[in-house]
């Protein structure tokens, strides 16, 4: 792992929880952000959404308050997705929010609003563009016009596309103040690295935004997790790995077995962009436990919302995020600035750790006293319920004496009795180690 990357990502590795926002014209057909490709729509067919786009309820200040209330510390908005539509006021295209009924630079408003709420800000920008005439079509595996004979012998000038794409990135990194994260999406086939002129692109970005944190999707996926796992990554290898819709079973490590920065990105239902029929939402319990899992494996979690065509975050998402926030308010300390514990995963849940403080995340109701697996009895100092600060009794009793190398705690007064967990989502104990 490269030291410069480790240092640059310090705040990111501390803040742990962010909001991803996928929003664009695709909120109108409301079938997710890939609809143009999935339905093989021509630019003309898709442009009707451009004419229609009128997000009268767009209020990023409300989004920011919701994110903050949920305990999120940063947010990343899709400045441009694969359909090529720009939420920002790019001088290089007319296909932008300023030319819709919205009539404003929606990225600028997002940035202002989230910064005002004290959150760090990032922009998602895709390397792909299904609207640009010079992007490959017939032989491209994702383009809406793939395999369409009309585009078979078309002459395109890919350099012109690259100039456009680099130019837009330059606009984003020069016109909007300090960005904390740049989230590039994505490489496939031979559409990676040199094809994107990735080195030139990132040199330009770093010139304007030396501290911005960048994901790892400019690199092809040939090498396992890219060269970010080596001591000498490419300049475009990125600062963190971006596993999508999966928590890496063992966290993410470099070639020497040392943890690297990584961030799970995942949806709340099963779509990134708004989908009118998708009500398959994860519960707040699932989200909280997955966030705990990420942190216990040294990673972050950026959780997605897909606002609708009017600019509203779906009601279900709002409710779930509010519940997550209630838990975070009382228990966030066990995640922020925390990471992998020196102790192995306990059977009843997970440990996270910050210095000499271990946080026990209990998911399973114990029978009698709860064993604090892995920790030695001499190491255990004060133990409290994180949510209330109330002391937790040690659970040593006649029937625990046989297991003298394991300390026990009792969730009620009598250690041989059983008590329901005070918080079924995740009851957190704060354990101070005597070291
Ligand atoms: C994918 C999809 C995309 C989504 C992204 C988020 O690569 O193409 O629609 O924006 O993942 O990680």
From TrEMBL:
Keyword Secreted among UniProt keywords: no
Site note May be important for catalysis, residues: 265
Keyword Hydrolase: yes
Top-tier EC class: hydrolase
Glycoside hydrolase family 29 N-terminal domain residues: 9-333
Gene3D superfamilies named among the record's database cross-references: Glycosidases
Superkingdom assignment: Bacteria
GO cellular component: lysosome
GO biological process: fucose metabolic process; glycoside catabolic process
SUPFAM superfamilies: (Trans)glycosidases
GO molecular function: alpha-L-fucosidase activity
This enzyme's EC code(s): 3.2.1.51
Keywords, sorted A to Z: Glycosidase, Hydrolase, Signal
Family from the record: Belongs to the glycosyl hydrolase 29 family.
Biological function: Alpha-L-fucosidase is responsible for hydrolyzing the alpha-1,6-linked fucose joined to the reducing-end N-acetylglucosamine of the carbohydrate moieties of glycoproteins.
Protein name, entry field: alpha-L-fucosidase
Originating organism: Mediterraneibacter gnavus (strain CC55_001C)
UniProt lineage: Bacteria, Bacillati, Bacillota, Clostridia, Lachnospirales
């Amino acid at each position: 792992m490269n030291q410069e990357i480790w240092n640059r990502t310090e705040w990111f590795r501390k803040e742990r929880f962010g909001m991803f926002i996928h929003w664009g014209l695709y909120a109108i057909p409301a079938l997710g952000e890939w609809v143009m490709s999935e339905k093989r729509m021509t630019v003309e067919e898709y442009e009707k959404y451009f004419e229609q786009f009128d997000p009268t309820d767009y209020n990023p200040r409300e989004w920011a308050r919701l994110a903050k209330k949920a305990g999120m510390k940063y947010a990343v908005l899709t400045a441009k997705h694969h359909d090529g539509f720009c939420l920002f006021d790019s001088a290089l295209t007319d296909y932008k929010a300023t030319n819709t009924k919205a009539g404003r630079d929606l990225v600028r408003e997002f940035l202002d609003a989230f910064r005002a709420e004290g959150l760090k800000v990032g922009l998602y920008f895709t390397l792909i563009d299904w609207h640009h005439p010079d992007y490959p079509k017939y032989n491209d595996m994702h383009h809406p016009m793939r395999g369409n004979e009309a585009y078979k012998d078309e002459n395109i000038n890919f350099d012109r596309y690259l100039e456009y794409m680099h130019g837009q990135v330059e606009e984003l990194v020069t016109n909007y103040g300090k960005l904390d994260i740049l989230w590039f999406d994505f490489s496939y086939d031979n559409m990676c690295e040199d094809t994107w002129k990735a080195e030139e692109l990132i040199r330009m970005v770093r010139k304007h935004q030396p501290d911005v944190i960048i994901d790892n999707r400019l690199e092809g996926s040939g090498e396992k997790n890219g060269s970010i796992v080596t001591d000498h990554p490419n300049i475009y290898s990125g600062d963190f790995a971006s596993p999508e819709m999966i928590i890496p079973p063992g966290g993410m490590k470099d070639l020497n077995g040392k943890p690297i920065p990584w961030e799970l990105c995942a949806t709340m239902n099963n779509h990134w962009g708004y989908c009118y029929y998708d009500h398959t939402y994860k519960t707040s319990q699932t989200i909280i436990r997955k966030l705990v899992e990420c942190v216990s494996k040294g990673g972050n979690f950026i959780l997605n919302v897909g606002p609708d065509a009017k600019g509203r975050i779906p009601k279900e998402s709002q409710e779930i995020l509010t519940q997550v926030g209630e838990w975070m308010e009382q228990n966030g300390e066990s995640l922020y600035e925390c990471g992998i514990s020196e102790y192995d995963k306990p059977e009843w849940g997970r440990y996270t750790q910050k210095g000499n403080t271990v946080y026990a995340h209990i998911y399973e109701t114990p029978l009698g006293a709860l064993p604090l697996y892995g920790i030695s009895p001499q190491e255990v100092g004060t133990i409290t319920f994180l949510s209330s600060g109330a002391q937790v009794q040690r659970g040593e009793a006649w029937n625990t004496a046989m297991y003298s190398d394991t300390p026990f705690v009792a969730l009620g007064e009598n250690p041989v009795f059983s008590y329901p967990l005070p918080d079924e989502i995740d009851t957190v104990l704060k354990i101070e180690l005597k070291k």
